[in-house]
């Protein structure tokens, strides 16, 4: 693609339509906007998904709101906006920035996710199913589910189906086999993805969670367990990374 | 599916065609074959891929050969056969078992992979590209590539494109964007998947390798780096798990 | 058991007493109740112990109270109810749910355990003895003791008998040898189970605790020490997992 | 017991039957035999099991043989003898020491176990079942099984039933429920004990194995997973510690 | 000692002065006092030092005060009393318990140490010198110094002499060589004991501290460094364990 | 140098100008000032940089202010003063100590740095460029930048140029190549220094940050990644150690 | 630079001297040579040093020799060639490839380094001094020294000056202060760089080595210690990475 | 001491007896001998013990022999010589160097220790007792024992007294209480020092060993356990560091 663009620019230069100076400028002018503390990359949304996203953790509420304002300002067709790991204070500032601009911003308290839906189009080809092992894994599951949804996918979930009560999971084999991509979330020993992976033929994105205590090592145990899964359709993302799992699932579901 | 089968059995029972005793037997008779030390699961191949696979590591050459013999014997249409982490001795025994049965077994020395191609059909919808960082990552890359190929996919590779010479990688953006699924293999700091992930819109399966020394911790560093990738289309499999990456890529490419 | 049930169902189908459709439903109808965020598994209590249990950590007080309400509602004969890792707020909500229903809920502050005793029957065959090394191990010891007790066992304890004052422990050899199962709780170097294990012939369930500082690594050191115990009648559960130790001890004591 | 003995001694002293000097000697004379480099503890066998055991690893073949010779010499009724982690060389020396003395010593090559059966009595009350996940877990499984057997238990096994093919395991629910104690052996993610634990009501001794590679960390991952098991009847022993699992299972099965 | 006591008892029994029953009781009656939650071991003070000590961390203020009360009550000659890791609240309770009994309790805020000096006798043979690397290591240094002092030793200190300014340390070689035992306290890279150890011929007790950040890993780095010290007169205690270092130094200084 | 000084002293002694006693004193009188809890080393500033520095973390506000007062008092020509990891309270005390003495103290809130510029001279030969990957890395970046600046260097920065959007970085190759020393700051996978190192020929000081979650392990992952950098001009300092990076960069830039 | 080149190309295009097609080719034609398994980057040598380098570890002797052949073939002025982590077999193949081409290849057995000196020019401005702690650190020290030398620097060394005998180091302060860059190599506790860093005003590149045993953790302890160095002119490279230290030192010495 | 020497030198200078040049030389002339690859420090033996020592690991046999030759050559009164971690080959070379010089060199195969006794004087004031837990800990125990002995101490040992058979240890309380310093060696859970420390009033030097498997982590578990010992007279040295323990014990025993 880059080659084609470059050739086009060079043709313009050869024809005298474009001066070399401006050509250099054009090559340099990549489509991101500089807020000094953050470079908002509008093209990433185009390249990689159907939503612009901000990780609120590690940023001040004001910084998050400024980034959202830049996203709302952007002319490239209305994109959905997703803010993860936010708190009520950040939500208040984002809501103010968004007010009167379009669809209301929503705050999903369990997971700390803020969504601003501006484009309801479904672009994913199948269903993304979020499966989780325990009640305390639900915040991460919700982050994954909302991420996949805001990126234009049909989603469903199946919660509290840990492997020590295998019949609960087997009860829902129908749901499992209806999915095109599965996100599988578990803490403690992280065994769920292996069992789920063995029951289906589609890709399973495993998300370890930091629930548990003692030898769960803040999710490291679940992470290691999932990386050693004996099911060969399982891949893994970082601990508590519901967002990442949602992104990858959306990315696969667009194929 | 199970429900349908069960209903069918029950209908037969109701009609008196099948005695309850035999029905119980049938329900129990799942399609795997018991070699005492290993249960060969012919249905897994049907469920999850287009090849039957054996991990040779931790098994004696004789055990591997016996499993391959059972696979060759199986009546369910000729499946490709893949043996991973094998050595020359295991290959010799496998070749003997396979001789005269069909296509010759091939030994891929760098990766220790044995392939017996019995079904050349291409079932993957796009190209699977294997990208690797350094020369010493090639054995793992080859395992991934052969796995994807034997499971019915078109494959290509791009080797020795580490991030400290970013121009080498950027040179091949065309190849990168031609792939439907990318497998990205790197040791040491494991930074390649982040850069590759940022350049494409398709899923990237990251495989850390155990190359390196000292603080590379046998691949743990690359693994951790990949799990923390700031590119949101990257998922990770176990260290040196080229086989797993090939499986997942094949699984995604069939969607 | 499953086989027998299945055969019985099939017999009913053959006799025309049960339609195939209903038989399918019956097979599917496993005895758990769906609260959306949690699947209450009444049968687990029947299968594995004599109490229904809730881990309060990671659940909101309201969620815990709802689960307890469902347990109280259940028709399968009055089971004892155990809530672990609860705080005063959760206890207040549980007490409200339980009020007027039967035996009062009790809050054991040291360990954060809530017990609702509805069935005082003793089902364990011998004594379960809880032995702990230091004063700060007592919360975990209490969790183990209450768990074993609520599951229908006679229990006793022996506290503050660390190995650096071996005479304190040897003083109580009589108590040690009176037990059918021993739960042994220690932090820091976790040496107590090895010494206790060498003094008795019954199974010793070792529980590492997170007491200590620095190189105690939050209980990892005690855990590792116990896993390396040179006494061959010692097994180990997770750090601070008094509940798990109580369950296993109860499970063994029913044999 | 010690108290009773002591009182008896004191009575003898009071009666003048025993001089104080000799009484002191008697109290001190505990029943172990000093080989200088090892103290053979004949009473441990009486106290804790029905076999005398030697860990060959870390000892020279000569040392092992000397210890076995002392065991054979001991007058306390014929005990079975178990040597673990031995090699062919050690077996040769043990066989020489044992030749002509009684039952032949047997070498179990897969696990490196040597058994000398001198007492065929069954003392365990129920069946001990050894369940393992993969073919490469069999050496550890065999060590566990032989240990339980030589200690006077009926044993059975169920191999190659990993959780990624859950139907294989569910096929054998009958066998699972027939056991009084289960030993559950798995490497990689170590998920098997959670699933097995959820299917039965008896104690499950989990043994992590060092099979696997990369993020399996030589068995640490399986170990951590098992310690975090969500099934409440699971306890854990050290990595590859089939012997320990066999001992604990025997200890429980005698209750 | 035990042998002599036992022989004496037996002589009394033989002479009819002591009945066997009472002899058994006497043997059993070891000199510790049971507070239910803690066994106060008055003999340990006699055996191992010249102070009775309580670790306040992990105990409630009331528990600490009760233990101190029992110590004050004890008839074995006035011992110094040391409470470590206490806060103001615990001190208030201890002061109340101690008021009017004798010497005032003192609270040393930096280290959280409470001392009640009841016996000013110097029993150590030489000087114990506490050397520390940085300003933030002083709390641990103070704990070590007060512990050594309350156990009857002359003490001195040398603070803020880190190895990156080696001349500061070399300035005080005189002080270093005047000590009979040195306690050496350092965080970060923990290099001080190696340098100090190389400059003196007396034992150096190294105490790693949890000061530092990032790769200091809460003191693990300093701990590991000290364990690898190339000076052969260095031994190590736990992270931040000023108390332990003071005890060991006192123990050596009494020799 | 020391040799020359010593020879000079000895010459004075030989000439009778200096008595042996005073000579001994002189040799001993090294130029640092003792505040009891801290030894202010005025010469270190001369030896190693152009600023006197205090790490506020682990010191009380009063201690910090006292150290600054001693620095202000010192007669050796006005040095810049740098306090790192300070909070508002410490700043208030430092400001009071500094008031009326000279240039105002400034508090840089993001990084917690206090600067007192007393000597504006530029001593570094080239530009020090601070490059950082994400918005949340800016506090560490600011600490590095201010440290380099207060030590007499021209500085510039380039923020939010993570490797997953490689075009952002490549956009600024001009800036990168204008630097004489680069400080490169990144959390998560820590891949930025490898890419930057490959683009320039000057030394790159890599600083891992503790941003991220889960498998970022508080910065350990970034640290390990940087240590394994495949670019050969990269060295590493401790996690979040912006100060250290600034010092080293200043040290190199003076060469 | 890239910008200037691009502008020049565009000028040629505008002038019609260069066709757009060829311009595209030129832009793409970066100066590296493809050996299929490795991309030899001749420009890296120009960009980053004065030697072309190969890491032999992880490559077959044939692969190494092929890469060296390509380097020898390259037309860009004779560069020195450095092969690290080679063995005798690799050296034999390299020697054959090099024979008759120019200066003889030398094999430095202790460190496994092969050097082919083709350009004796000194380009570094000052002396690079390699300081090491113990005899067993010498192989890494030699790798660092030869790397710095082959890249055109004057080098010297100071071996066996560990911190437990601080006088040995202080003896050589003259040598230390004569260096422009210091490489400081130590295993075990890794304390040497802190002491050396405190004695000089120039940058100190610290290299941890994997010498030691037990808690030295294969060099991790030394690595962690160096990262926590309290001397502010110390940076760190990977364990045993003498090559990297030599490169960085050369890079700094060219400034 | 240094001060006194310096004053003496200065007096000589003042008196004209010594020229300044020579005085400078004298100050510089510290008593170590340079073998280029190792600096033999004859004074360390005087300062820190009664033997000169070489760690053979990481040195070639020739290097070890050369160091021994220099030690034998040294004129400062016959010192004992100790070589640790040697093999038969190194012993052969050492024996050759020593032949005809004096007392024969002895090789202690279990521990790999070589001793050359040249000075039989006993300088330690009491008995050093080496206590070890298992048969496989004996090599480390022997290294400790021989080190203490060659440094002029009376030594005794007590082997195979692990804590799981506590009666074995209690049997030997007499021996324990006869020691002035105890070295306590254990692998696996490393619990022995806590129990021993609680039984005696003298310092206990704990040495973890790398015996064990799985969760023993090569001795890390024993090391951590010992660092967390609840006995306050226990200090710790590195894993398998029998030599270090012997040195420290000798150092204490000379006090």
> How big a fraction of the residues of chain A is strand?
15-25%
The description of the largest β-sheet of chain A is:
5 strands, parallel
Which structural class matches the secondary elements of chain A? alpha/beta
Intertermini distance of chain A: 19 Å
Number of helices of chain A: 11
Globular, elongated, flat, extended or rod-shaped: what is the shape of chain A?
A: globular
Overall helicity of chain A: 40-55%
**Annotation, overall tally of beta strands of chain A:** 11
Largest interface: A-B, 36 and 36 residues
Strand order of the largest sheet of chain A: 8-7-9-10-11
Rg calculated over all Cα atoms of chain A: 21 Å
In quaternary terms, these chains amount to homooctamer
Q: What is the overall pLDDT average of chain A? A: 84
Low-confidence parts of chain A, pLDDT < 50 over ≥5 residues? 27-33, 41-49
H-E string of chain A: HHEEHEHEHEEEHEHHEHEHEH
Written overview of the protein:
Eight copies of one chain form a homooctamer. With 255 residues, chain A is of the alpha/beta class. In chain A, 41% of the residues lie in helices and 19% in strands. Chain A contains eleven helices and eleven strands. In chain A, the strands form three sheets. In chain A, strands 8-7-9-10-11 form a five-stranded parallel β-sheet, sandwiched between helices. A four-stranded mixed β-sheet of chain A has the order 3-4-6-5, with helices on both faces. In chain A, helix 10 (220-227) links the parallel strand 10 (204-208) and strand 11. The longest helix of chain A is centred in the first third of the chain and has 13 residues, at 2-14. The first copy, chain A, is globular, with a radius of gyration of 21 Å. The two termini of chain A are 19 Å apart. The relative contact order of chain A is 0.11. Chain A binds chain B through residues 1-3, 47-49, 53, 125-126, 173-174, 177, 180-181, 201-203, 205, 223, 227-228, 232-239, 243-244, 247-248, 251-252, 255, and chain B through 1-3, 47-49, 53, 125-126, 173-174, 177, 180-181, 201-203, 205, 223, 227-228, 232-239, 243-244, 247-248, 251-252, 255.
């Amino acid at each position: 693609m880059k080659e084609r663009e470059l050739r086009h620019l060079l043709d313009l230069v050869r024809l005298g339509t474009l001066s070399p100076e401006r050509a250099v400028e054009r090559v340099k002018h990549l489509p991101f906007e500089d807020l000094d503390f953050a470079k908002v990359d509008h093209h990433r949304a185009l390249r990689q998904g159907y939503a612009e996203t901000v990780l609120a953790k590690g940023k001040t509420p004001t910084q998050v709101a400024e980034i959202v304002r830049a996203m709302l300002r952007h002319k490239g067709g209305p994109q959905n906006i997703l803010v993860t790991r936010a708190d009520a204070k950040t939500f208040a500032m984002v809501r103010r920035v968004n007010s009167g601009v379009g669809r209301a911003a929503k705050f999903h308290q369990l997971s700390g996710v803020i969504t601003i839906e501006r484009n309801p189009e479904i672009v994913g080809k199948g269903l993304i199913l979020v499966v989780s092992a325990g009640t305390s894994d639900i915040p991460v599951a919700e982050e994954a589910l909302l991420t996949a949804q805001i990126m234009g996918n049909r989603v469903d979930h199946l919660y509290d189906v840990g492997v020590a009560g295998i019949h609960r999971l087997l009860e829902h084999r129908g749901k499992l086999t209806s999915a095109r991509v599965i996100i599988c979330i578990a803490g403690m020993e992280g065994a769920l993805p292996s069992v789920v992976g063995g029951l289906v033929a589609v890709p399973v994105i495993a998300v370890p969670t930091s629930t548990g205590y003692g030898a769960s090592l803040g999710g490291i145990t679940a992470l290691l367990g999932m990386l050693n899964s004996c099911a060969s359709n399982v891949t893994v993302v970082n601990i508590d990374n519901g967002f990442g799992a949602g992104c990858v699932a959306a990315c696969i579901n667009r194929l």
